[in-house]
Amino acid sequence: MANLSLHATPPLKGYEQRFGNTSLSEVTDTSIYSISLALQPDEALASVRNKLGVEWPVTGQSTLNADASHRLLGLQSDQVFALVTGKVSETGLPELDESAYVTDQSDSWAGLVIDGPMSRTALERVCPIDLHPSVFPVGQVTRTTMEHLAVIILSEAENRFLLLSPASSAHSFLHAVETSLHNIY
Question: Which CATH number fits domain 16-28+107-184: 3.20.20.140, 1.10.150.130, 3.30.360.10, 3.30.1360.120?
Answer without folding.
Answer: 3.30.1360.120
